[in-house]
Every structure is written in C-alpha cells, then in structure tokens.
Amino acid sequence: MDYELDHIGIAVRSIEEALPFYLDVLKGSLEDRYTSDVPGVEVHVAVVQTNGQTIELLEPTNRNSPIARFIRQKGKGVHHVAYRVDDLDKAILDAGEKGIRFLEDTLRTNARGRRLIYLNPASTEGTLFELCSYPQD
Q1: CA-CA distance, 126 to 137, in Å (whole number)?
Q2: What are phi and psi of 110, to 5 degrees?
Q3: Which of 39, 51, 48, 56 minimizes the C-alpha distance to 114?
Q4: Edge-to-edge strands of the sheet including 4-11?
Q5: Which residues of 102-120 are buried (b: 16+ CB within 10 A; e: fewer)?
Q6: Per-residue pLDDT tens for 83-93?
Q7: What is the pTM of this model?
Q8: 35 beta partners
Q9: Residue 90 in contact with residue 1, Cβ under 8 Å?
Q10: In order of start, what are the domains of the chain with their CATH numbers?
Q11: Alpha-carbon distances of 10 from 1, 33, 51, 71, 133, rounded to whole Å
C-alpha cells in the first residue's frame, strides 16, 4: 500500500483573511471553494495549490463544528495531514491490524467525492491524520 501526501488541512477563522497569504505570498492558486453542511463537519473549504502541493483552508460554519472546537482548544493552524491511498478499505484494515484506531464516525464521502476517515490521534502521537481515496483511484 502506497501512502502519498494529499493535502494539509489548516484551520482558520476566516478564509477571506487567510487567502492573501497563500495566494500573494506563497504564490498559490485558488483551485476550489465549497461548503460542507454535513452534521459533524460544518465547514467552508478553500483549496489552494502551490507548486503541485495542496492546502485546504478550513473555516467553521458554526460555533459547534469540529473546526470551531479545534480553534478554541488549540488555536488556528495545522488541523490534519492527509494521505492518499489506492484502497481506503484495505488501508483501514491494514492499519487496524497494526493497532491503529480510527475515529469511526468520520468515515464518509465528501462533497467532491473523496472517501476519507481520520485516525485517532491517540494512535499517532497526537497528530490528526486523514486517509483518503478518490473515485478515479
């Protein structure tokens, strides 16, 4: 199973305030914007590409969303690191056999067709990781 860095999710209070840094300073390009109103997600997303690398800016849409809670607890900044896998179900099984736990309620398909799940940070020395796969994979 190959694990390829897919994107880094960054929690921000305001995408509009954060974008100038990513577009003007880092010379990125805004590739996509969308909102997820799925319960337990509730986030605005801006996808920025910089030299082939992807950053997702994550702005909470309500004060009880996971991103809003993250910002209250830890402040703005890196929320998660996502790795693309060829077969998400197999990656979950393989990691589970190695004792890795998942945040089971996060298994879903997002608004852009990406299947994903988050690993329990207790299994990763405190870092939130996402495993994901895409329909064309």
Answers
A1: 29
A2: -80, 180
A3: 56
A4: 29-36, 43-50, 53-60, 4-11, 77-84, 129-133, 115-119, 102-109
A5: bbeebeeeeeeebbbbbbe
A6: 999 999 999 99
A7: 0.93
A8: 44
A9: yes
A10: 4-133 (3.10.180.10)
A11: 26, 14, 18, 10, 20
pLDDT digits (tens, 9 = 90+) for 60-110: 999 999 999 999 999 999 999 999 999 999 999 999 999 999 999 999 999
Element (H, E) at 100: none
CA distances from 55 to 8, 22, 51 (A): 5, 9, 11
Residue 12 in tokens: 């921000």
42's tokens: 């509730």
Q: Which tokens sit at 43?
A: 């986030």
Structure tokens belonging to residue 70:
């993250």
Which spans in the chain are helix H?
A: 15-20, 66-74, 88-97
